[in-house]
Design brief:
By secondary structure, this protein is α+β, with helices and mostly antiparallel strands. The chain is built from 12 helices and 11 strands.
Length: 298
C-alpha cells in the first residue's frame, strides 16, 4: 500500500484519526476528525492537541493534566482505550470513544502515537436507557459492542473499500464452546460476567482499526483489517489462545471457556451473505472437531 493509498484509507474511515510525533505535535489529521471536531487539518497540523481539543474524562477532569493517553503511550509504548469528552471548535463538548496506539519506525524505535476516536455523543448519553430502540439496534446492551445488524453494515462498508482500493480484511466467527451447558450450570449473573469478560479481552487485544461485534449470545465476530491470507490461520489461533492465556474462570470444576472459530478472507466479487455463510460453515466445522479449534479458508 502506497502512502497516498494509506492516507486515503484513513480519510475514508468513519472514525476520526490523528497522529502525533514524539514531541506531541499533530502531524496528521483525518477528514473524519475534521467533521467530528470542526477543526480543519490546516488549523491543527504542527499544533499540540492539549492546547485545542482539551480532552476530559466523563467526570470532568482534564486528561491533559491528569493522564494524557498520547503522552503515556509515548513514554511506555502501551495501548489505551477510554471514553472522554473533547471540545468542538464551536465550544461545546462531544462524547467520544478513544483508542491510542504507539507508532514505531522500521528500527522499532517509538516515534509517535496514533489516536482513533468515534463520536458517541448520541449513544453514550443513552446507553443505560433500556427503552432506547435506536441504541439497542446498533449496540448490544450487555457488552456495549456493535450488534449483528450494525456489524453487517460495517462489513458491507469494508467490502466496498476492498472493491475501490483493494484493502483486504479477514473475518472470524468465534463461538463459545459448550455454551448451553455453561448456561445450565451457571446463574445468569455469572454467565453475563463470562460473556463481558470475553468481550473485554477481545477488545483489548485488537488494534484500533479492527472491529469486534457481539453477534449472538454465544458468538462474536471479529473483522481484522489489512491482513494477508498466509496470516489468516495464525491470527485465528491467536484469538483462540487469548482466553487460555488469561485463564478465565467459570467456577465449574475442570471447565475452561474455549472457542470454535471459523475464518475467511475477503475476495473478488464476494458478497456479505457469502462471507457470513463461509465463516458460519467453518465455525461449525471447528465445533464438529469437539471445539477449541480454528478452521479457515478463502
Amino acid at each position: 500500500m502506497t502512502e497516498n493509498q494509506y492516507t486515503a484509507f484513513l480519510d475514508n474511515l468513519y472514525e476520526g484519526v490523528y497522529y502525533v510525533d514524539k514531541y506531541m505535535k499533530i502531524k496528521y489529521w483525518s477528514k473524519s476528525a475534521e467533521l467530528i471536531t470542526g477543526f480543519s487539518s490546516s488549523e491543527l497540523i504542527g499544533q499540540k492537541c492539549e492546547k485545542i481539543l482539551t480532552h476530559t474524562n466523563l467526570e470532568g477532569q482534564t486528561l491533559c493534566e491528569t493522564g494524557c493517553l498520547c503522552r503515556d503511550t509515548l513514554i511506555n509504548g502501551s495501548y489505551y482505550q477510554t471514553e472522554a469528552y473533547l471540545r468542538h471548535k464551536k465550544g461545546h463538548l462531544i462524547q467520544v470513544s478513544v483508542k491510542v496506539s504507539p507508532m514505531y519506525d522500521m528500527k522499532n524505535n517509538l516515534i509517535g502515537a496514533i489516536q482513533v476516536f468515534t463520536n458517541n455523543d448520541f449513544y453514550l448519553r443513552r446507553r443505560d436507557d433500556s427503552e432506547d430502540e435506536s441504541y439497542a439496534l446498533y449496540y448490544d446492551k450487555l457488552t456495549k459492542l456493535p450488534t449483528k445488524y450494525n456489524m453487517k453494515l460495517k462489513i458491507k462498508n469494508k467490502i466496498q473499500e476492498y472493491r475501490r482500493y483493494g484493502w483486504t480484511f479477514g473475518l472470524f466467527l468465534l463461538e463459545i464452546d459448550h455454551f448451553e451447558e455453561l448456561s445450565n450450570r451457571l446463574d445468569t449473573h455469572k454467565m453475563e460476567k463470562l460473556v463481558t469478560d470475553i468481550a473485554d479481552l477481545l477488545k483489548k487485544d485488537l488494534r484500533p482499526f479492527d472491529i469486534l461485534s457481539h453477534w449472538e449470545k454465544n458468538q462474536f465476530v471479529v473483522l481484522l483489517v489489512n491482513i494477508k491470507k498466509e496470516h489468516l490461520t495464525m491470527l485465528g489461533e491467536r484469538l483462540r489462545n487469548l482466553i487460555k492465556k488469561k485463564g478465565l474462570i467459570t467456577s465449574i470444576k475442570n471447565t475452561e471457556p474455549s472457542f470454535s472459530i471459523g475464518g475467511t478472507l475477503v475476495s473478488e466479487g464476494i458478497t456479505l451473505e457469502e462471507l457470513i455463510e463461509k465463516i458460519t460453515k467453518f465455525c461449525h466445522a471447528s465445533h464438529d472437531k469437539n471445539g477449541d479449534c480454528v478452521t479457515t479458508s478463502w
